[in-house]
Amino acid sequence: MTKISELKDFSECSTTYILAVNDTINVINGKWKAAIISSLFFGKKRYGEIEKDIPKINSRMLSKELRDLEANGIVVRKVYDTIPVGVEYELTESGHAFRKVLDVMLEWGLEHRKNVIGKTI
Amino acid sequence: MTKISELKDFSECSTTYILAVNDTINVINGKWKAAIISSLFFGKKRYGEIEKDIPKINSRMLSKELRDLEANGIVVRKVYDTIPVGVEYELTESGHAFRKVLDVMLEWGLEHRKNVIGKTI
DNA sequence: CTGAATCCTTAATGATACTG
DNA sequence: CAGTATCATTAAGGATTCAG
């Protein structure tokens, strides 16, 4: 099953469906993950570069979110034994594939924004 | 702009991009909204029917989430002046269009699950 | 049947200071 | 440079009770 339309009713929403959708939701939950992933679409980056991309994030949140994303197999962390130490973050294959999710979210968000503004103003 | 690949780097992530993606994230944030929307894909339902579809939700959360979804233009609430009062919830056009977001989330989630299991077991 | 009201617990985020 | 530690604040969620 790869589409909701393949189900007859909600009672058929199998564990698989719920688990897979929740996996995806958990990847982006929180205030910053979508921004961090988006930042890394444009190539591997160092901690400080991501921090500059997302000005209002603080270091505690950035390192926590990066750890989450690493644990979830979305980014990989590479440490270079230089002085001072250099660290680079890069998307995994799954991380890059997440682009299609964000693309659809963007498309739906734009359309929805148009609908709502059309109906409330 | 309707795709991330139309940007050269993250600094071009315009307000439009951020706002639209956040609109979408906010629609499903929280523990229950994806399930509620999915339940309504299969037609308009009454409060109690949704409650039965999602066994572990409690009434405070269900009515709160439904109010959120209504305020965001995802569902409409229709009251029938019967005794006892009947209420039906139904997806708006935007709500139905959200199917494509969930479809991509499902597809990515399944693929990701395969990747991660393949690499950790 | 469809919720609203209240209280409580836990999770998420923020601010600030500090370190190898 | 790339974080960690600590404390404070806010948001999310759960349990229970009650009402039109």
TrEMBL record, chains A, B:
Coiled-coil regions, chain positions: none
Domain HTH hxlR-type, residue spans: 13-117
Any one GO molecular-function label of the UniProt entry: DNA binding
UniProt keyword list: DNA-binding, Transcription, Transcription regulation
InterPro entries found in the cross-reference section: HTH_HxlR (IPR002577), WH-like_DNA-bd_sf (IPR036388), WH_DNA-bd_sf (IPR036390)
Stated name of the protein: HxlR family transcriptional regulator
